[in-house]
Amino acid sequence: MINFYGDNMRWFIGIVVSNADPLHVGRCRVRIYGAHSDNVNEVPEASLPWASCLVPTTEDGVSGLGRSPNVKPGAMVFGFFMDGNVSQQPVIMGSIPRIEVLDDDKISSQDAPAIDEIEIPAERNLIDVPPRGTTASLESLVGSNNTEKAFNFLVGNGYSKEQAAGVLGNFIVESRMDPTAVSEVPGEESFGIAQWNPAAGRKQRLESYASDRNLDFRTLETQLQFFHYEFKTEGSYYGYNKFKAMGSYIQATVHICDKYEKPGTKHLDRRIAAAKKTLETYG
């Protein structure tokens, strides 16, 4: 118990990445500056410790009574480690207000439609989704093909299987999961698995992200890391919190199409079909 006495106090500042506490007691996963790399392959969200949150003494604090903490993903928080130098039992003391970007309700785009408003296309080979592999790759991304690697990456970093399928349903239609794919539209030059458009500065942001971290922007691993980073850090613009609350692969597919990809031609039936097959294959 000596580690809990207070002689080895360690405080921290970090960013909340999830408040979906399976115990429903208000805990949060926090990526802590100086302790956890921002490389989500080195330290996946699933590996981050759960941080307890302090509540005022005016609350009951026992047996589910009183109000629970309400810290949201993206919040910057301050706290300390109960176990001192071991640093595996963080406690959040409070949040540090900060400004990100516009709120979801200030963005002029519609929410994903309800499931019954979308017609699911009949089974047909719209987009090929490779079969599930039987052996794992020795690379940092686990899987026998790019789609399986990307699916495992997303699920390993906090996305549900339905949400991962929704993301990949879009990427498959955009690029067939080829990280070196270049748009076939003359003069457009959109690039990568998400077809980041240089005219909107999106390809340049991918290149800058990679350059700052000494990574190759043309690899699948870097592009998945960039998607995860951009989708979360610009979460209010892309509707990250709404997306993470979705339990339907159809809604997830439509959301990524409308809020992240924003293509000129949606081909929504193809995106939904690819997401459905991805979920059936890998989920």
What does this structure look like?
With 283 residues, the protein is α+β, with helices and mostly antiparallel strands. It has two domains: 2-96, Nucleic acid-binding protein domain (OB fold (Dihydrolipoamide Acetyltransferase, E2P)); 104-282, Lysozyme (Orthogonal Bundle), CATH 1.10.530. The chain has eight helices and five strands, in the order βββββαααααααα. The protein has helices at 146-156, 161-175, 202-212, 220-233, 235-238, 240-244, 249-261, 268-282, and strands at residues 11-18, 28-32, 50-53, 76-81, 90-96. A five-stranded mixed β-barrel has the order 1-2-3-5-4. Helix 1 runs antiparallel to helix 2, helix 1 (146-156) runs parallel beside helix 4 (220-233) and helix 2 (161-175) packs across helix 7 (249-261).
Describe this structure in a few short sentences.
This protein is of the alpha+beta class. It has helices spanning 146-156, 161-175, 202-212, 220-233, 235-238, 240-244, 249-261, 268-282, and strands at 11-18, 28-32, 50-53, 76-81, 90-96.
Task: Tell me the helix content.
Answer: 25-40%
Query: Beta-strand level of the residues, as a percent range?
Result: 5-15%
| Poorly predicted ranges | 101-125, 133-139
Distance between the termini: 43 Å
Protein structure class:
alpha+beta
Count of separate DSSP helical elements: 8
Number of domains: 2
Give the second-level CATH assignment, the architecture of the largest domain: Orthogonal Bundle
Question: What name is given to the CATH topology of the largest domain?
Answer: Lysozyme
| Anisotropy-based shape | elongated
Q: From the alpha-carbon coordinates, what is the Rg to the nearest angstrom?
A: 20 Å
SSE series: EEEEEHHHHHHHH
Count of extended strands: 5
